[in-house]
Amino acid sequence: MADDPRTLGAECAGEIRAAFDGYARLFAAHGIGFEQVRALGAAALAETSEWAPSLGEELLGVAEGSGLAGWQLGALNGRTEILAAAAVSGEGECSTSVVLADGSPRTVQTWDWHDTLRDGMTVVSWPGVCTFTEAGVAGKIGVNSAGLGVHFNVLRHASDHADIGVPVHVVARRILDEASTVEEATELARSARLSASSVITVVTADRARCLELSPAGVGVVDPVGGVLWHANHFLDAALAPGERTTVDVSTTLARGSWLRSHAAELGAADLTARARALCAHTEDGAAVCAHPDMSLPAHERWESLATISLDVVAGRMHVHTGGPCSVTPESWAEFAVRPAVSTPAR
User: Fold this and answer.
1) Is the pTM value of this prediction over 0.90?
2) 3-state SS, residue 334
3) Type and span of the H or E element at 150
4) Fewest beta carbons less than 10 Å away: which of 82, 175, 270, 283?
5) What is the full DSSP assignment across 304-317?
6) Which residue in 122, 170, 55 sits closest to 308, CA to CA?
């Protein structure tokens, strides 16, 4: 739980410091030096403060509470932008499915990332917002008290560049903070100047939409037959020609095909059955459930670190630590949105 950024920073100081150290090692492995990280982190914080002043203040408060510098929180929140600035490619991350059904969407996704960063996973609850994220990062996947939820996958586009823009994780959090409809979320996403790409899948009781964020623009992908899915390649016709993820480094196309062909199972009302429908490995034709190859260097290993489902109607998020192949009915942790704090009119 969290209400004050400084308190959150102080209570989670060890985890936030460890997260920064983990990303510093990841950046270094990709040839991004300390001084460059400091400059890019400061730029990410500045962009956040300009586009979302309250979130900029929040990051500075968390930094103060944890004993880190503001630029270090900027680097954590801008980690996608920093990696994009260095044109880093790779396998991940994430496979997302949404099936609209009777006013109660069935959603599920894997969160795939480096196994060395698994200890950074956390859930933070601000008034009105509950988000699965990483220590020190403003937001990622979550649900709000207005009945809107977001899923999150990385993308890579030819337009990605090193002039750091608003961090995509900050965009996800501001959508959770302020949006109650798909249209409001779309408008917010389009108002941000971006330097890196990701897809934010927005879900309400009766709507869903993938917002493909890139510096070249925000593409929109709507459900077909009540089904919406996304892996790690662009689907919007205008943005797809700039796709930078290739089949020689990623299984995204195979995972996308798997999601599309298993829509019936992914629309199961039972949460565990829905998650188990993501249980596909390389030998099944699609590594939706990823396991690290320990023969590879740490910065080239990928793992499904969490499996997550949103209940936007009840304002709840279900998180399983690990990939779909280890999900059981008992393995879910449930988190509820706390009511938003209202301020009396003066």
Assistant:
1) yes
2) strand
3) strand 149-154
4) 283
5) EEEEEEEETTTTEE
6) 122
